[in-house]
Specification:
heterodimer, A: 642 residues, alpha/beta, Methane Monooxygenase Hydroxylase, Chain G, domain 1, 5-stranded parallel sheet, 17 helices, 37% helix, B: alpha+beta, Fumarate Reductase Iron-sulfur Protein, Chain B, domain 2, 2 domains, 5-stranded mixed sheet, elongated
Chain lengths: 642, 257
């Protein structure tokens, strides 16, 4: 596993951008209906990407094994997405098109995504809405019965479809119900409470996974012809994030250590509108949907140290800094820009709330203009959620918000067919790196998860299966047994440490390091410090972590310990990646690389590539392959939202 | 704030459990109920004890993982909130707080406060979907859905599948869960072709899973973190009656070509 960097080949089909996918669909090999049932595909994860893929593959006739660590597929973290899903339907007649959605996504990602993938995403976006409506997703409607749309950050058209503030929930329930239908028919073999702990690579191909049954503790293997990882993002490396508590990087990290390249790990999205931290006990951060920025105005007091109540600060002494700095997009500036602007005003001492780490999101003007009833219709559940957590009524007092880790654009590197550098290992949804470049636009995660699962992977995986010559793998063979033994031994090792510090204590400390040194702003010195601190913390973890109980039953502390052990390795790779990329782009803001007015300054000459990191064995520095990003259709320009 | 917790501890399915008291001093009123449990668990681990097992994930009231009786009330004292959305400011300092797993034969205890709720998935498998395989859907705007129908469908669809309705019901009925899904799909034009079949299938599965019958106590709607109304159950009963009366025998499919 040491030695040379292996080049990565994106396998983008030739021809004009607009016809690549259509042509590629024709060029790909098919598996005939009668042969599909001879193939077994293992799908890990049941969020939007995993559930939609598992259901669709099963409908096509493949044998599907589904894996989730939840008690039910419906609990995957996609359920928590609030705001909406983008699609180039142009129903509002405001000038949207596939090309505009493609362009906005490429630009929003600060020109660090692959053109061909993003174009395909925009192309299938409209199909997603059709599919979801057919399944009964209760999207918001106008009185005439047509679908309603709203706008989101980074776009000047209204292309976002939504189901109140619970769009992720409704889309996931649509995919979940399609999946349950297949489970009920016996066509998907679903394994809840099952956590993937390793990837089975046999003769150079991904042929299955090793997993631990979280209830019985039993380590077991699932073998098949291809593996699909739909295991989400790694935002919880920061400890505090908007991710669900169990979301973790273990599946993708294990795949990385078995040879799959991991791309752009330092691209992590910090969402501008979250409820600020209130104390040490805090276990997670709660997002307030970006859609609130349609009607809420973001401001801070014009001078620092202004301790008056927000209502007592006259108009002239408020700084609506997003509207001031970005008049064209105003409060709907993209997430990375809005987050950094909030950090900046707080760094200047103008932040609000107990710790000075917050800005106002004020609905006063919108309530005056539209009435409280309309605002309640649009955001009622979000206002309630805010009041429940903070004990403040946002109809009267402006919300206080602060940025928080929300999404990871980085992930396992995949080619145009969504296959990683390990043949047979496909990666979809947030777990891959593909479509959002250095910054994801709002309402695009749901779009990508479902595009991958419903409309892209089901085609491309057939091409792989029809082309690959796959020998039979024995579930009881020595190779499989050896990896199972590795996994069981790692679990035993964690239990045997019997140290004095809890897993959460280590995780919190890791989170602070990564947040401070590889968070909203990064610099050379800070990253080097982090690269010294993380290995120390990791060494201490393996000597002093306290994991009570045994491995033979439900043991939540043990589950967490395994996940945090992997975060302790991944964090280092994130910092390495951030260190090598000396430009700023999107969410990756290197303080050394900024324009005169403090905006991210890209360096296209040197950094127009995706960094695909490859594991080089224990104790060796990882290797990096660079996938050059060629911009044949869009013109590389400095992003401006002014 | 200071509390004394009285928590149900049970090592494994089918083994006897018991209540154990734990002191919980020095808790912030702004901590959520689950964050309070985190603090208690951290202290237990530091003392070398096994932490209290409980289901949780999103901690914002949408994933439906968290599930516990707090002082005998499903999800605790705050209306329209899951346990993760209850904050300690809702309790009196010095209070003794009793925490138990969901109570229902259909939800056997796995460990401590964690129960097996897979019966709810099997009710969905029995018909809680619209058959619409991927591909071939027509343009979304060709299906008109009146706003009031879409809104009412959304109210019912907001169910998070936590099982509080079952836990709160004196009969252990899953009627509100089942009726919410039937209402969501039954209100939409897309849901009409399978409406009767869906109703018959899901109701039959509910019985097979040993859930009790509904006698309209109404406890479920009070416990529901999404405040879904028992009007859904009336709708289910009406649809069920209609389906039983109008059911036609299913024919095997296919031509001979």
């Amino acid at each position: 596993m040491t030695g040379q960097t292996r080049a990565v080949n994106a396998r983008v089909p030739p021809g004009p951008l607009e016809t690549k996918w259509e042509r590629h669909k024709f060029d790909m090999k098919l598996v005939s209906p009668a042969n599909k049932r001879k193939y077994t595909i293992i799908v890990v994860g049941t969020g939007l990407a995993g559930a939609s893929a598992a259901a669709t593959l099963s409908e096509l006739g493949y044998r599907v094994i589904g894996i989730t660590y939840h008690d039910s597929p419906r609990r995957a973290h996609s359920i928590a997405a609030q705001g909406g899903i983008n699609a180039a339907k142009n129903y509002p007649n405001d000038g949207d098109s596939i090309f505009r959605l493609f362009y906005d996504t490429i630009k929003g990602g600060d020109f660090r995504a692959r053109e061909a993938n993003v174009y395909r995403l925009a192309e299938v976006s409209a199909n997603i809405i059709d599919q979801c409506v057919a399944q009964g997703v209760p999207f918001a409607r106008e009185y005439g019965g047509l679908l309603a749309n709203r706008s989101f950050g980074g776009a000047q058209v209204s292309r976002t479809f939504y189901a109140r503030g619970q769009t992720g929930q409704q889309l996931l329930l649509g995919a979940y119900q399609a999946l349950e239908r297949q489970i009920g028919r016996g066509a998907v073999d679903m394994h809840p409470h099952m956590e993937m702990l390793d990837l089975l690579v046999i003769d150079g191909r991904a042929r299955g996974i090793v997993a631990r049954d979280l209830i019985t503790g039993q380590v077991q293997s699932f073998v098949g012809d291809a593996v699909v990882l739909a295991t989400g993002g790694y935002g919880n490396v920061f400890y505090l994030s908007t991710n669900a508590r169990m979301s973790n990087a273990t599946a993708i990290w294990r795949a990385y250590k078995r040879g799959a390249a991991l791309a752009n790990p330092c691209f992590t999205q910090i969402h501008p509108t979250c409820i600020p931290v209130s104390g040490d006990y805090q276990s997670k951060l709660t997002l307030m949907s970006e859609s609130l920025r349609n009607d809420g105005r973001v401001w801070v007091p014009a001078r620092g140290g202004d301790a008056r109540a927000p209502g007592d600060i006259p108009e002239a002494e408020r700084d609506y800094y997003l509207e001031r700095k970005y008049p064209a997009f105003g409060n709907l500036a993209p997430r990375d820009i809005a987050s950094r602007a909030a950090k900046q005003v707080c760094d200047e001492g103008r932040g609000v709330g107990p710790a000075g780490l917050g800005v106002y999101l004020d609905f006063r003007d919108a309530i005056q203009r539209l009435g409280a009833g309309t605002i309640a219709d649009r955001y009622g559940n979000l206002f309630e959620m805010y009041e429940r957590i903070t004990d403040e009524d946002p109809y009267r007092v402006p919300m206080r918000i602060y940025p928080a880790v929300h999404y990871t654009m980085g992930g396992l590197w995949v080619d145009y067919n969504l296959m990683s550098t390990v043949p047979g290992l496909h990666v979809i949804g947030e777990a891959n790196f593909s479509d959002h470049g250095a910054n994801r636009l709002g309402a695009s995660a749901l779009m990508q998860g479902l595009a991958d699962g419903y409309f892209i992977l089901p085609y491309t995986i057939g091409d792989y299966l029809a082309s690959a010559k796959l020998a039979r793998v024995e579930a009881n063979g020595p190779e499989v047994r050896a990896i199972e033994a590795d996994v069981a031994q790692r679990t035993q090792r964690l239990l045997a440490i019997k140290g004095r510090r809890t897993v959460d204590a280590f995780h919190r400390q890791l989170g602070r390091i990564v947040w401070e040194k590889c968070g909203m702003a990064r610099n050379d010195a800070g990253l080097r410090e982090a690269l010294a601190e993380i290995p120390q913390l990791r060494a201490e973890f393996w000597e002093n972590v306290a994991v009570p109980g045994t491995g033979e039953s439900l043991n939540q502390a043990l589950e967490k310990a395994g996940r945090v052990a992997d975060f302790l390795e991944l964090a280092e790779l994130m910092c390495l990646d951030a260190l090598q990329r000396t430009e700023s782009c999107g969410a990756h803001f290197r303080e050394e690389s900024q324009t005169a007015d403090g905006e991210a300054l890209r360096d296209d000459e040197h950094f127009a590539y995706a960094a695909a990191w490859q594991y080089a064995g224990e104790g060796n520095a990882p290797l990096v392959a660079k996938e050059p990003l060629a911009f044949e259709t869009v013109h590389l320009s400095q992003r401006s939202y002014k | 704030m200071d509390f004394t917790l009285r928590v149900w501890r049970q090592a494994a399915p089918g083994t006897p459990g018991r209540f154990v008291d734990y002191p919980a001093p020095g808790i912030s009123p702004d901590a959520s109920f689950l964050e309070m449990l985190d603090v208690v668990n951290e202290r237990l681990i530091e003392q070398g004890h096994e932490p209290i097992a409980f289901s949780h994930d999103c901690r914002e009231g949408i994933c439906g993982s968290c599930a516990m009786m707090i002082d005998g009330v499903a999800h605790g004292p705050v209306a329209g909130a899951a346990a993760c959305q209850v904050h300690m400011r809702s309790f009196r300092t010095g209070a003794r707080v009793t925490i138990e797993p969901w109570r229902s034969v259909a939800f056997p205890v796995i460990k401590d406060l964690v129960t097996d709720r897979s019966a709810l998935d099997r009710i969905i498998q029995a018909g809680g979907f619209i058959t619409a395989p991927t591909g071939g859907a027509r343009d979304a705007n060709e299906i008109l859905v009146p706003k009031d129908a879409a809104d009412a469908a959304m109210d019912a669809a907001s169910c998070i599948g936590c099982g509080a309705c079952v836990a709160a019901c004196p009969n252990g009925s899953a009627s509100l869960f089942t009726a919410a899904k039937l209402t969501h799909l039954g209100l939409l034009p897309q849901g009409q072709p399978e409406r009767s079949r869906r109703t018959l299938g899901m109701v039959a599965q509910m019985d097979r899973e040993h859930f009790g019958h509904c006698t309209l106590f109404g406890e479920c709607q009070d416990a529901c973190p999404k405040q879904i109304s028992i009007d859904a159950i009336a709708r289910m009963n009406r649809d069920y009656l209609h389906a039983v009366i109008t059911a036609r025998p299913e024919r095997s499919g296919g031509g001979t070509g």
